[in-house]
Design goal:
By secondary structure, the chain is of the alpha+beta class. Helix content is about 30%, strand content about 35%. Helix 1 packs across helix 3 (about 85-100).
Length: about 130
């Protein structure tokens, strides 16, 4: 239910916030949390998007009503972090960010952990390796 909500009527007209705006806010709030390696498009998307990519709303779904919003976010957690703690921080940060920036009440934030990101070993410089052919 990604409809544009009628947010507030003023003397000058109506203020509307598109669901895509809420998705971006939630995405940015998610990647700010320590322990998040990236966003996931979910099982249907199949391809994970690690930090540094431009589409911060990837892996975020919202339902927006007149006064309330509900958020689902799919994430990849860095190996070594406690998943329940990271997920709790994501919930708190999303709720706070959306409520401060939009005035909407966030009634629900569901965090779906789709993967754990392992740190890859750094490649050894070619100078350190013995060459087979001279």
């Amino acid at each position: 239910m990604n409809m544009i909500a009628e947010y507030e009527k003023t003397d000058m007209g109506t203020i509307q916030i598109a669901p895509e705006v809420i998705e971006v806010i939630a995405g940015l709030a998610t990647i700010e949390v320590e322990g998040i390696a990236g966003m996931s498009g979910g099982l249907a998307g199949g391809i994970a998007e690690l930090l540094g990519k431009k589409n911060v709303a990837k892996g975020v779904k919202v339902e927006v009503g007149q006064k309330e919003a509900a958020v689902d976010v799919s994430v990849i957690v860095q190996y070594g972090f406690k998943i329940p703690e990271v997920a709790n921080h994501v919930q708190e940060n999303i709720k706070r960010s959306i409520e401060i920036m939009t005035g909407l009440t966030v009634v629900e934030v569901n965090v779906h952990v789709h993967d754990v990101h392992l740190k890859t070993e750094e490649k050894v410089d070619s100078d350190d390796q013995t060459q087979r052919v001279k």
